[in-house]
Amino acid sequence: MTTVVFFLMPGVHLLDLAGPAQVFSTAADFGQPYDLAYVAESPTVVSGQGLPLTADTAWPPLGPDDLVVVPGRRAPTVDAVLAAPVGDPVLAALRGHHARGGTVASVCAGADVLGRAGLLDGRRCTTHHDVQEDLARRWPRATVVRDVLFTSDDRIVTSAGIASGIDLALHLVAVRHGPAFAARVARDMVVYARRNGHEPQTSAMLRHRSHLDDVVHRVQNLLDERFAEALPLTGLARAAGVGERTLTRLFTRATGGLTPLRYQQALRLERAEHLIAHGSTVEAAARAVGFEDPRMLRRLRARAESAV
């Protein structure tokens, strides 16, 4: 059983908390062993949106496989947002969990609490765009990364603002259980497959999801989950209950010009770029995303670079 502890500060943003909590709760519904816990310095915490929340004041036992998440908070000023009233015992708990091999994450301005615990020193991090400069000034030994949704550095995972906590949590689920499982969780939450924090803040999985064609969405769901497999047009059309020519016509119209094959290639390319950015060779990344010949991946990368 993996315990996910959410530390709640006064004024906690509901979506900072609810987004990641929903991801791990949905993962548990699908059979993964997650147990969610909520800890605060007082038994009642009033959220930034005025909703009172109850929490435990004692931390549960935590091991290396467990996760602590610090959501951000709402306050009248930037200084107040970054000066959340958090005591030394909480900071010691965060440091101790990380020192024992555990993962510590933050959403939005929750990154400042990690900074006070000494966990941002020498590491990459991010936060909401409104407080990025202030966070960088407060913790000059950290590298604050702009214009990403989340960063991960030595089991310190930080995300930008509000809804990006969902991206952070889906990333952690994908790392632990694979991208296909994360895509299943995302689809159940009606966010489909989400963006990656180390890549531009748009992706094929989002750019081509703004349409209302249920047939195309069903095919995209299949491609999102099984993009590394060989998925002939015949099988996709059969799964969608339409003919091949009809599927191609509907898909191209809904996605602004992409065929199912080009959409699948875009998914493979984005995943391969993520793997390469994390130290994989082009050959290994090509195999991981389903290309039998790495030359195909090289051609797609060259085509994407020339289009920039």
TrEMBL record:
SUPFAM superfamilies in alphabetical order: Class I glutamine amidotransferase-like (SSF52317), Homeodomain-like (SSF46689)
SMART domains reported for this sequence: HTH_ARAC
Keyword Transcription part of the UniProt annotation: yes
Domain of life: Bacteria
Residue ranges occupied by any HTH araC/xylS-type domain in the UniProt entry: 217-308
Keyword Transferase: no
Keywords tagged on the record: Transcription, Transcription regulation
PANTHER family per record: ARAC-FAMILY TRANSCRIPTIONAL REGULATOR, HTH-TYPE TRANSCRIPTIONAL REGULATOR RV1931C
Name listed for the protein in its UniProt record: GlxA family transcriptional regulator
Lineage of the organism: Bacteria, Bacillati, Actinomycetota, Actinomycetes, Kitasatosporales
